[in-house]
Design goal:
Blueprint (H helix, E strand, L loop, with lengths): L1 H14 L3 H8 L14 H8 L1 H26 L13 H17 L12 H11 L1 H18 L2 H10 L1 H5 L5 H24 L4
Catalytic activity: an acyl phosphate + sn-glycerol 3-phosphate = a 1-acyl-sn-glycero-3-phosphate + phosphate
Subcellular location: Cell membrane
Protein name: Glycerol-3-phosphate acyltransferase
């Protein structure tokens, strides 16, 4: 139970760091009050541009990565290659990444008003299945170049994650990744519900 508790609590606290809010405030605004009111990379980028928003992209991605690595350390398990996490560390890593995503969505340090956890998911997947993550990045870049749209490339790369994982990991792991993606779907559903006409 000790490693699981460390993974969940540590993951949630890592996810709760409001990177987008901190970066946006340094530029004189609160992302929760402008644009689509989502305190994440895309909303901040719309206000201050790509270069200035890079710390948000990196910080939100690292939430998931650091949470996954924390779980491996707590379990005393080194990162596995090529298939990704294995053995007793699997539940801890998945719970840590889920906790980081929950922390990003409902952050303790930002009045529980957070983002949609896509980058936290991507960062966590880099620990869960490194080769699947690299395939996702390659797919993102290819789709972005072909369509000339990073947004489309990002969608293709993220939605391809479970398919890529199938090449390297058991189906049970892919189901776990699908459950993580359901958290993202929940956040999008909440945003759509909140923005409906009254």
């Amino acid at each position: 139970m000790g490693p699981l508790l460390v993974s969940v609590i540590g993951g949630y606290l890592l996810g709760s760091v409001p990177v987008a809010v901190l970066v946006a405030r340094a530029h004189g605004f609160d992302p929760r009050e402008v644009g689509d009111r989502n305190p994440g990379f895309w909303n901040v980028r719309e206000r201050i541009g790509w270069r200035a928003a890079v710390p948000v992209f990196a910080g939100d991605t690292l939430k998931g990565t650091l949470a996954g690595l924390l779980a491996l350390v707590a379990c005393g398990t080194p990162p596995a290659w090529p298939g990704g996490v294995r053995g007793d560390s699997v539940p801890a890593v998945y719970l840590a990444v889920a906790a980081a995503m929950v922390g990003h969505a409902w952050p303790l340090f930002a009045a529980f008003r957070g983002g949609r956890s896509i980058l936290a998911l991507a960062g966590g997947f880099a620990v869960i299945c490194p080769p699947g993550f690299l395939l996702g990045v390659a797919t993102l870049v290819t789709a972005a170049v072909v369509t000339r749209s990073f947004a489309i490339g990002a969608r293709v790369g993220v939605f391809g994650i479970p398919l890529f994982q199938l090449f390297f990991a058991p189906v049970t792991h892919v189901i776990g990744t699908g459950l993580l993606m359901c958290l993202v779907g929940l956040r999008f559903g909440q945003a759509a519900w909140a923005s409906r006409p009254s």
